[in-house]
Amino acid sequence: MPRLALVFFVVLLSASIVEAQERASASPPVLDFGYYRARIEPMFLVKRPGNVACVECHEQGQGGLKFQPLKDGGWTEDASRLNFTLVSAFVVPGNPKSSRLLQHPLASQDGGDRFHGGGKQWAAGDPEYLTLASWVRGETLPSSNKVVRVIQTNSAGDNVHIIDPATNKVVGIIQDIRIAHGVAAAPDGSRLYVTDEALHTLDVVDARSLSVVARLPLTGQPNNVAITQDGRKVYVGIRGEPGGLNVIDTASLKNVMTIPIGGGIHNVYVTPDGKFVVAGSLTHNLISVADVATDTWVRTIKMTAGVRPMAFEMKPNGSTNRIFVQLTGYHGVVAVDFATGTELKRYDFPAIAGVEANWDGLQGAPAHGLGITPDGKQLWSTSKVYGYAFVYSLPEMKELARVPVGQHPEWLTFSPDGGLVYVAAAGDNMTFVVDTRSFKEIARIPVGQVPKRNLTATLQMP
Question: Which of 303, 310, 387 minimizes the C-alpha distance to 349?
Fold first, then answer.
């Protein structure tokens, strides 16, 4: 073959190879079922502000998309696979802008269709819409993607804010939980459990999509919530008489029993060793202790007033040493011996020079937030009277610092290394971030209406 002809042949062959590679790379991606079930399908159960949830129309088959019947507030895997097939018919893999599933509910000003019978659910920059687009482009679930998050509930709002402690920014919002009171996290990071005072439910949230996937009916108005170390049971304190603890089986998502006790329960905890569930009654002034293995009460500790937040000090062997307790009408902390139930000492909060005391609107709780650092060396307690946190050394209970933390500070939670504390300032609609070594404020994070309870958790997140 002449040299010129050979060169021409090589050029043609190279061009053909490049063209073939481009055609291969242009092949539409395969839609991933795992990603769909974990992050897409839970969105269809979410009621967004001003809208009904997608399932409320599409369970009836509106628009030609008919979901499978729900079971216990969610879908079985078999039902999800059928839904996956149906939903995929409304998608052009690799092309979100041509996919009816995305364009139909997208705001018209952002390029969505002119009309959607279910209303416009998303703007183009909404996290849920971006997640949908990622799925259409072929994204799959990572094998493991666990991250630390601070969960901040908002007691006068309808949402829960998710804070990244690495940046101290809000990175997600759980919508449609009204009067969220308490929150607990599954040990594997897959779910959050949030008490909903408005609906008298325990709302189950998928941690990846931040969508409410089930609402479990309770026997009355709930307050706080706790989870066992193995994640098999969630205990929900019932505020209304006759009170008690609802016990939720997390495998079946069923309210399986109520542990009875006189008086409405405000806060509930599982001790650090995982052996006992401890509940505080506002109306009967009791701390009640139940065995986690049997779900039966083993003893009570009588206090002088309604029992509010508690914190648990550990002995070197991991068992519980002292309970630190805040009481209705008391501006300070009470130390109680866990084994005997004996009140050991009261630590009255002193006046703070130059700071005006505020006794208005305290809801019976001049002090309403307690926490012990992960290393067990500091006890932090909020004072709504002064808008400060009082910090004590452990085990000595020597005052270390007084730190301003906003108006009406409530609950607090620590970063895993204990270097930062996050304090819910209910009067400012902020979460204050303070360095626990320097006792200096390092950030204020805007959250929702009247933030109170919060939690640090390791979650499976996008």
Answer: 387
Class level of CATH domain 146-241+307-460: mainly beta
Bridge partners, 320 (sequence order) = 314
Please say whether the beta carbons of 90 and 99 come within 8 A. yes
Cα R_g (the chain), whole angstroms: 26
Closest alpha carbon to 291 in 312, 313, 274: 274
Domain residues of the chain, as ranges? 33-136, 146-241+307-460
pLDDT digits (tens, 9 = 90+) for 13-27: 444 444 444 444 468
d(CA 178, CA 160): 9
Alpha-carbon gap, residue 58 to 62, rounded angstroms = 5
The C-alpha atoms of residue 448 and residue 152 are separated, in whole angstroms, by 9
How does pLDDT run across 210-243, given as a tens digit for each residue? 889 899 999 999 999 999 999 999 999 999 888 9
pLDDT at 10 > cutoff 80:
no
> DSSP strand E in 187-306: where?
191-196, 201-206, 211-217, 222-227, 233-238, 245-249, 254-259, 265-270, 276-281, 286-291, 296-302
Question: Which tens digit of pLDDT belongs to each residue from 317-360?
Answer: 999 999 999 999 999 999 999 999 999 999 999 999 999 999 98
Local structure of residue 70 (DSSP, 8 states) = P
Q: How much of the chain is in helix, strand and coil states, percent to nearest 5?
A: 15, 40, 45
Residues constituting the chain: 462
- Report the C-alpha gap between 290 and 283 in whole angstroms: 19
